[in-house]
């Protein structure tokens, strides 16, 4: 799933290419991708694109006051064309969910692999009309996301720290991959309960959160859309690297699997050498 750094890179990529152009048309190839009905897609025809911005994991194209907002979800991505194919996107054929044609002949498709369709697009007059944006927590790279603000975010949270970092209404933009990376750098177990974290733990998590994301944004900056996924994978320390050596201590990177996702961690660095048991068969080791 694209997270804050990749979405930031995608916004920069689109900004360089679409701002100042006008929308020629929006074609729906999936009847489920568009979650709104007013205004209709035809309302964007001829509208100039004034800006491209990010809200958490959402991309927002401001088209003369009407916003085309999309969330790529787990398996979605953007395919850019310098020249869009002449044939219209055909409903039910292949991974294309939505196509945007621009005034200079360029454009992009929103695509989604697999059968589980979660990619979502919205046409709204205000971004606050998008439910996922209206409930977003603070952006962890914002200037006002201070150590004190982080403490306020954690105040009252009782769950495991990994889940808290991933919860978009608590902190916006962090998902499964970067929560693994942040906690590895901070040397904290993904299943540590927030109330058990002392001040030093919280300091390390805050510093790691800002540092890991800033470094990943820097790595994504200037990359074309087609290279952002590979750049993300190349920068991972533990996430997606089950069985490989931890870059800090050399211990093996371990995995805990769930129904639809998995997490990776280093026992030596994060859990005092104790492996975490797979919750599908037993409780987590304490």
UniProtKB/TrEMBL annotation:
It catalyses: 2'-deoxyribonucleotide-(2'-deoxyribose 5'-phosphate)-2'-deoxyribonucleotide-DNA = a 3'-end 2'-deoxyribonucleotide-(2,3-dehydro-2,3-deoxyribose 5'-phosphate)-DNA + a 5'-end 5'-phospho-2'-deoxyribonucleoside-DNA + H(+); Hydrolysis of DNA containing ring-opened 7-methylguanine residues, releasing 2,6-diamino-4-hydroxy-5-(N-methyl)formamidopyrimidine. SUPFAM superfamilies: Glucocorticoid receptor-like (DNA-binding domain), N-terminal domain of MutM-like DNA repair proteins, S13-like H2TH domain. Pfam families: Fapy_DNA_glyco, H2TH, zf-FPG_IleRS. Its cofactor is Zn(2+). Keywords: DNA damage, DNA repair, DNA-binding, Glycosidase, Hydrolase, Lyase, Metal-binding, Multifunctional enzyme, Zinc, Zinc-finger. InterPro entries: DNA_glyclase_Znf_dom_DNA_BS, FPG_cat, FPG_N, H2TH_FPG, Ribosomal_uS13-like_H2TH, Znf_DNA_glyclase/AP_lyase, Znf_FPG/IleRS. One of its GO terms (molecular function) is 8-oxo-7,8-dihydroguanine DNA N-glycosylase activity. Residues 2-119 form the Formamidopyrimidine-DNA glycosylase catalytic domain. GO terms for biological process: base-excision repair. Residues 237-271 form the FPG-type domain. Belongs to the FPG family. This is Formamidopyrimidine-DNA glycosylase. The lineage of its organism: Bacteria, Bacillati, Actinomycetota, Actinomycetes, Micrococcales.
């Amino acid at each position: 799933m694209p997270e804050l750094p990749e979405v930031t890179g995608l916004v920069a990529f689109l900004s360089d290419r679409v701002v100042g152009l006008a929308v020629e048309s929006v074609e729906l190839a999936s009847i489920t991708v568009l979650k709104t009905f007013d205004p209709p897609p035809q309302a964007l025809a001829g509208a100039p694109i004034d800006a491209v911005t990010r809200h958490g994991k959402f991309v927002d194209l401001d088209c003369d006051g009407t916003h085309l907002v999309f969330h790529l979800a787990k398996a979605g991505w953007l395919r850019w064309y310098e020249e869009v194919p002449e044939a219209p996107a055909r409903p039910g054929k292949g991974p294309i969910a939505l196509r945007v044609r621009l005034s200079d002949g360029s454009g992009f498709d929103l695509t989604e692999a697999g059968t589980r369709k979660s990619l979502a697009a919205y046409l709204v007059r205000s971004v606050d009309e998008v439910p996922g944006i209206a409930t977003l927590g603070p952006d962890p790279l914002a200037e006002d996301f201070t150590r004190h603000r982080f403490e306020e975010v954690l105040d009252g949270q009782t769950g495991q720290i990994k889940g808290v970092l991933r919860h978009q209404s608590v902190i916006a933009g962090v998902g499964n991959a970067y929560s693994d990376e942040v906690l590895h750098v901070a040397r904290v177990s993904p299943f540590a309960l927030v109330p058990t974290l002392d001040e030093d733990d919280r300091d390390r998590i805050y510093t790691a959160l800002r540092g890991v994301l800033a470094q990943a944004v820097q790595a994504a900056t200037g990359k074309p859309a087609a290279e952002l996924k590979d750049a993300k994978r190349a920068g991972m320390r533990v996430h997606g690297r089950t069985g490989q050596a931890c870059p800090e201590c050399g211990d093996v990177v371990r995995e805990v699997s769930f129904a639809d996702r998995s997490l990776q961690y280093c026992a030596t660095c994060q859990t005092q050498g104790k492996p975490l048991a797979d919750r599908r068969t037993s409780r987590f080791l304490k």
